[in-house]
Amino acid sequence: MGKTVFDETARRALLERAMRVHTGTKPRWGQFTAVKMLRHLSASFEMALGELPCAPKPGPMKNWFVHWLVIDSPLPWPKGTPTAPELLAQPTAGVEEEQQRLKTALERVVAHGPEGAFADHPAFGKLSSAQWGRLIWRHVDHHLRQFGV
């Protein structure tokens, strides 16, 4: 199994990397600014918690093999993968405020625990809390790599 945000060491390492992002940190690919990327990540945590409703997306993403590729495969995610528009439309603040928002939202995810109940994913459908933990870790890692941290 892959890394998960429910593992304190793995989670702490992600947060330390996120705190190295600053206003001038440039992406290696894509259109995000550092602030928009941080807000996108905290919005994804809010989605997992059911706090940010996202419309279900039709398509092949509910297939078990796609789940494995995205959640558990050692392969890196492709650059420029589509995302829910709701995760892009959130207003932002400064980088420090977005780092704090990310940390606080991640703490709320962790408080649900590896056995907690999470919302359905708009593309993947019903995920176990263990799958959510791994998916969130991979998502954060992907975007932190995008920004070279």
Strands, helices and their partners?
Elements: H1 8-18, H2 34-48, H3 64-72, H4 95-112, H5 129-146
Q: How many separate domains make up the residues?
A: 1
Overall radius of gyration: 14 Å
Share of β-strand residues: under 5%
Biggest sheet, in brief?
none
Question: Which percent bin holds the helix content?
Answer: 40-55%
Distance between the termini: 23 Å
Secondary-structure element order, N to C: HHHHH
Number of helices: 5
**How many β-strand runs?**
0
The structure class reads mainly alpha
3D shape: globular
Outline the low-pLDDT stretches: none
Q: What does the average pLDDT come to?
A: 93
Q: How is this structure best described in words?
A:
The chain is mostly helical and 149 residues long. The chain has one domain. It contains five helices and no strands. The model has no long low-confidence stretch (mean pLDDT 93).
What tags apply to this protein structure?
5 helices; mainly alpha; 149 residues; globular
